[in-house]
TrEMBL record:
NCBIfam families from the UniProt entry: SiaB_fam_kinase
Residues in coiled coil: 25-52
Protein name according to UniProt: Histidine kinase-, DNA gyrase B-, and HSP90-like ATPase
Protein origin, superkingdom: Bacteria
Pfam families (UniProt xref): DUF6272 (PF19788)
Keyword tags: Coiled coil
Length: 187
C-alpha cells in the first residue's frame, strides 16, 4: 500500500513533471515541450506562464550542459549514475516550485555557493545591474554560457531567494540540489 501513499503525495503536490535518470538532448527537448503543454493547461496568467517556462527551461538546460563534468571513476559508480539528474516541477496554489539535483565536482561547490550567495544578497535593482555587468564583461564558455543563468533565474523569480544544498558523495564529488519558487499571483 506504500504505492498508494506515494501516488497521493504526488497528486497532492500537483506535480507537473518529475524525472530521474540520464538526460539526453532529445529527452531535454521532449521535457521542455511537455512542460509548455502542461503550463498551457494550468496557468491563465500569460506573464507568469512565460516567466516560469523560461526559468524551468534554463534550469533543465543547465543540467544537461553540465552533466559531463563528473567522472564516474571519482564517484565509484556507473557512468549512468554520474550523468543522472533529478527534476521535479510542481504547481501549488500560490507558486510554482522547481527542484533539480545533479552530481558536480566538489572542487566547484565553493564557486557555485559564492555565486548563489552573491545573487541572494542583492535586491532587484542591484540584480539588474549585476546582470548587465556580467553580460558586458563575461566571456562565454565553450558551452555557450557566460554565468548569467542563475542571475537570470533570480531576476525572473521576483525576489525569491535561490535555495541550494551541497551533499558530499565522495571526496571528489558532491550532489547539488537547487530549488526555486516563482509566485503564481502577480502583484
Amino acid at each position: 500500500m506504500d504505492y498508494l501513499r506515494s501516488y497521493k503525495n504526488i497528486y497532492d503536490q500537483n506535480i507537473i513533471l518529475m524525472f530521474k535518470g540520464e538526460l539526453t538532448f532529445d529527452l531535454v527537448t521532449a521535457m521542455i515541450g511537455t512542460l509548455e503543454e502542461r503550463l498551457e493547461e494550468l496557468e491563465e496568467n500569460r506573464k507568469v506562464k512565460k516567466k516560469f517556462y523560461n526559468v524551468a527551461t534554463e534550469c533543465i538546460q543547465n543540467l544537461y550542459y553540465h552533466l559531463d563534468e563528473v567522472n564516474a571513476d571519482d564517484m565509484k559508480v556507473s557512468s549512468y549514475d554520474s550523468n543522472s539528474a533529478l527534476i521535479m516541477i510542481s504547481a501549488r496554489k500560490r507558486f510554482y516550485s522547481l527542484q533539480t539535483g545533479n552530481y558536480i565536482p566538489s572542487s566547484k561547490t565553493k564557486e557555485i555557493q559564492k555565486r548563489l550567495d552573491d545573487i541572494n544578497a542583492v535586491d532587484a535593482d542591484e540584480l539588474r545591474a549585476l546582470y548587465k555587468k556580467v553580460l558586458a564583461e563575461q566571456e562565454f564558455s565553450d558551452k555557450g554560457t557566460g554565468g548569467l543563468g542563475f542571475i537570470d533565474i533570480a531576476r525572473k523569480t521576483g525576489g525569491q531567494k535561490l535555495r541550494y544544498k551541497f551533499q558530499p558523495v565522495t571526496d571528489k564529488v558532491s550532489y547539488f540540489t537547487f530549488q526555486i519558487r516563482l509566485p503564481r499571483l502577480e502583484a
